Amino acid sequence: MDNASLKKSIVAILRKNARTPVKEIAERLSITEDRAAELIKALEAEQVIMGYTAIVSDAAYEGEVRAIIEVAVQPERDTGFDTIAEKLSKFPEVQSMYLVSGQYDLRLEIVGHSLQEVASFVAAKLACQDGVKATATYFLLKKYKEAGVQLNKDEKYERLKIVP
Amino acid sequence: MSASKSCPKSWVARHIAPLPKSGIRDFFELVNTMDDVISLGIGEPDFVTPWHIREATMYALNRGFTSYTSNLGDIRLRKAICRVAEEKFGVTYHPENECIVTVGVSEALDIVMRAVLNPGDEVLYHEPCYVSYAPTIAMCHAVPVVVQTHAEYAFVLQDEDLEKAVTPRTRVLLLNYPNNPTGAGLSLEDKRRLADFAVRHDLLVISDEIYEELTYGERSVSIAALPGMKERTVLLNGFSKSYAMTGYRIGYALAEPPIIDAMMKIHQYSMLCASSIAQAAALEALQNGEPPRCEMLAEYKQRRNVIVKRFNDVGLTCFMPRGAFYVFPSIQCMGMDSMAFAKSLLQEQHVAVVPGSAFGRCGEGHVRCSYAASMEEIEEAMRRISSFVQYHMAIGKL
Ligand SMILES: Cc1ncc(COP(=O)(O)O)c(C=O)c1O
User: Fold this and answer.
1) Residue B4 — very low, low, confident or very high, per pLDDT cuts 50/70/90?
2) Architecture of the CATH domain B51-288
3) Is the CB of B104 inside a 6 Å radius of any atom of ligand 1?
4) Which helix (H) or strand (E) holds A145?
5) pLDDT at residue A65 is higher than 70
6) What are the tens digits of pLDDT across the range B8-58?
7) What is the DSSP string of A9-76?
8) Which residues in A lie closer than 8 A to residue B50 (C-beta atoms)?
């Protein structure tokens, strides 16, 4: 396999499980561990891989309040949505952010310590920005699935132990 | 009154009584008495059936699609099967009269044998092989004739071995590639060679290609697609392995009309038709199942690479399978037979593998390990196998 397809496979493996050991990655792809490690470094340097996080259940959010906020903004002549989007994304309360098609333009995921904190962030920081036309806030109540992982796992059906 | 009191009359038919029960029955019982076993002995996918297929099954139930279908199977499913055969296997069949939907490849094997074999006819089949072949042939009052295959030829049938086994009574050549239990596969060249052999001896080929869509390297057309072969081949395939649908019990046979017609008669009287909801699920698998199938295939391929390397590292020589989800490492260096190896490994390390002897005499000296198991299970099983091998090698040297 050439480097490009190896990198693609490595990204796929790490997106499924970022903690897959380099040794296993190497063996899965029939390459040496050194080569696998080099390719991962290259992916990080090229910023294809930007970081690694854990998929957690609601239990890990104890003491946090999370919300999705849809924001309608006024695009600018030369830069479109980028200037305002980059500005908003700098707030540490913003966990993730996308430009989306549809009624609104930006979709933000916000984290705070309380309802009031999130509400005042929206009122005092977001809604009053130049170029922000409207916001809609949705507090998150329960997580069912993230990054392809179903959080309430189905009960596993026990297979026969030997099948010819 | 007769004097047969000491020896009560047996009601079991003469050709059924001597059939062996599966050779690993007592081993299976032993495995079942233990509850912390990691099993590499499971010949079915560890993936649950893709959700869209399960959902389509429920939709079929909701709509009340619960009656008999045509004996041959729902025509929409047969059309989809024939489309796949043309696109993927390179052979054109007519859905109206060249395709029959069966209760797994198991039923297809049974009814094709009954449809074509006369008492005393000989069937060439290759070992190591799936456990049902010889009994299925014997149940037709026909004669199973084994041709052995060997690790040094990557378990591919060799012409000279076939020539030695063929007789004027030989009627059928039964093939299974990609192979259970070895993972062996055929190149296009191999298929041409086997096709020539079949033509030369005027044999019908029954090709069990249930693992065809679990082929890891280059794929080639079915043997049925080679010149002059369609009229002498029955192609069997199913949904159990490639779509993770073993419990649905659904498969099919493709052949020219006279054979399908004969199979249909048996199927009609013994089975009537395959389950309607399983047929609906199979149709969904063919229509929308390509992405999850490819995803499972990619995962199996990577696990195969891992497990083959681990076995070779441990010192149990293992050849790189071309298909299916089995590896068939050699255990000859251990100085015990495959049943003893499997029993000791189970008792000492709580890992279950299937002794190669279960798949025929020439499977001796090997064990079958399935990598249709999670990576964690494979990792842990290989750790234990490694300790097992090291320990026994060490005491062997004393
Ligand atoms: C080679 C081979 N043929 C046929 C079968 C039976 O498959 P099905 O579930 O379609 O009856 C199996 C199952 O293990 C197999 O390995």
Assistant:
1) low
2) 3-Layer(aba) Sandwich (3.40)
3) yes
4) strand A145-146
5) yes
6) 899 999 999 999 887 677 788 889 889 899 999 999 999 999 999 999 999
7) HHHHHHHH-TT--HHHHHHHTT--HHHHHHHHHHHHHTTSS--------GGGGTT-EEEEEEEEE--B
8) none
Which DSSP state fits B304?
H
The pick from B103, B130, B325 for probing ligand 1's pocket by mutation, whose C-beta has the most ligand atoms within 8 angstroms, reads B130
C-alpha–C-alpha distance, residues B316 and B334, integer Å: 9
Closest CA to B214 of B367, B79, B370: B370
Q: Which CATH fold topology does A59-142 show?
A: Alpha-Beta Plaits (3.30.70)
Nearest CA, atom 15, ligand 1: B130
Cα of A23 vs its chain's centroid, Å:
26
Q: Which of B386, B327, B326, B339 lies closest to B365, judged by CA?
A: B339
Collapsed DSSP state (helix, strand, coil) of residue B125: strand
- Centre of ligand 1 from the C-alpha of residue B325, in Å: 12
Which of B246, B253, B239 has its CA nearest to residue B211? B239
Report pLDDT digits (tens) over B243-297: 999 999 999 999 999 999 999 999 999 999 999 999 999 999 999 999 999 999 9
Helix (H) or strand (E) holding B208: strand B204-208
Q: Which part of chain B has CATH 3.90.1150.10?
A: 21-49+291-397
A162 interaction partners in chain B (CB closer than 8 Å): 24, 27-28, 31, 39, 41-42, 352, 354
pLDDT at B20: 85
At residue B115 the predicted structure's pLDDT band, cuts being 50, 70 and 90, is very high
SS3 content of chain B, % helix, strand, coil (to 5): 45, 15, 40
Please tell me which residue of chain B has the smallest CA distance to A17: B375
Per residue in B348-365, pLDDT (tens digit) is 999 999 999 999 999 999
Cis peptide before B128 (omega within 30 of 0): yes
Is residue A70's pLDDT more than 80? Answer: yes
Q: pLDDT tens-digit profile of B158-173?
A: 999 999 999 999 999 9
B21-49+291-397 CATH, one of 3.40.1360.10, 3.90.1150.10, 2.60.120.560, 3.10.20.10: 3.90.1150.10
User: Is the peptide bond between B178 and the residue preceding it cis, with omega within 30 degrees of 0?
Assistant: yes
The DSSP secondary-structure symbol of A80 reads: B
Fold of the A3-45 domain: Arc Repressor Mutant, subunit A (1.10.10)
Query: Is the CB of B289 within 6 Å of ligand 1?
Result: no
